[in-house]
Write a structure and sequence with these properties.
alpha+beta, nine-stranded mixed sheet, 16 strands
Length: 303
């Protein structure tokens, strides 16, 4: 793959908690603006891909210890689970080749320090922080009654809490730069760099991984929007999420893009602009640009 891609991925959260901090509340920055980390989005992508049978290295997995306890695998153990044993004599090229065969490493890169190998790969795909653009979001705290006591002499069962946001709309910027792996093509035999297949798989999970991640805290989170601006090797764009806005409506919400002029002026470098959204709950504004195609995010049909 040679073309660069820039875009935004939108995640909607209704009475759920897309990305909690260690207190259980939705993550915020110092001015209390709610945001979701890139790790939260990447986790949903890796989880879904792993469930489909793809080779994913950086994902928590478990084993039974010698003392018959369940514990998470170390990085070395996860590597050896996916590939084979690694030691001080394992050639670095072999390790590097194995790393690139893992889909998450092909997407996001890796930091790998095992068996006297110290490898750092800058990923072809970079995802920024996803800020909530809905100004009236509120954090809701629900009391939960546990069915169990936690002390021997207790007369009542324990209480717990579930914390959610009533509604939030996160917009994540991302970029895809296939040239990030050019140097490795000279080092590794039979390595084609960042592939079209890897990009197509990233595009697919960008449209559904949050919706599919139906955990207790994330039921209510779904992929509601994505835009992919693809262009030639000379194209470079700023953070497209900074051009986004969100307006709450009675019947439908509106997702607004304010970067029309920029993309129209760069039209000679852009090959396509694909916009995916939920037409049943959302309207678009500001996407009247050259080379734009609108799609239903669920059916993938052209609108």
């Amino acid at each position: 793959m040679k073309n660069k891609v820039y875009g935004v991925i939108g995640i909607k959260s209704v009475m759920s908690n897309w990305n909690a901090d260690f207190t259980g509340r939705p993550k915020t920055i110092s001015d209390n603006t709610i945001f979701g980390s890139d790790k939260a989005l990447k986790y949903s992508m890796k989880r879904h891909s792993n469930d489909k049978g793809e080779k994913i290295l950086y994902l928590k997995s478990f084993k039974t210890s010698d003392k018959d306890k369940i514990q998470p695998r170390s990085l070395k153990e996860r590597y050896e689970q996916l590939f084979h044993n690694i030691n001080e004599k394992t050639p670095s090229k072999e390790v590097l080749h194995n790393l690139f065969s893992a889909l998450d490493v092909m997407w996001f890169g890796a930091t790998f320090a095992e068996g006297k190998n110290n490898i750092s790969i800058t990923g072809a795909i970079q995802i920024g922080q996803g800020f909530n653009y809905y100004e009236d979001s509120n954090v809701e705290v629900q009391d939960i009654l546990s069915p169990f006591r936690n002390k021997e002499d207790a007369d009542a069962s324990t209480l717990g809490k579930k914390i959610v946001s009533d509604e939030a709309h996160y917009f994540y910027p991302f970029s895809v730069n296939p040239m990030a792996y050019n140097n490795y093509e000279d080092i590794l035999e039979n390595f084609d760099g960042f592939t079209q297949e890897a990009y197509d798989k990233f595009k697919e999970v960008s449209l559904c991984s949050a919706t599919l991640l139906a955990t207790n805290s994330k039921v209510g989170c779904e992929n509601e929007f994505a835009v992919f601006v693809e262009g030639n090797e000379t194209l470079y764009l700023p953070n497209l999420a900074t051009f986004m806005a969100f307006e709450k409506g009675e019947d439908k919400d509106t997702i607004i893009f304010k970067g029309e002029d920029l993309l129209n002026q760069l039209s000679n470098q852009i090959t396509s602009i694909e916009v995916y959204y939920n037409p049943y709950s959302t309207k678009l504004d500001g996407f009247d640009m050259n080379k734009v195609t609108l799609y239903n995010i669920f059916t993938r049909e052209v609108i």
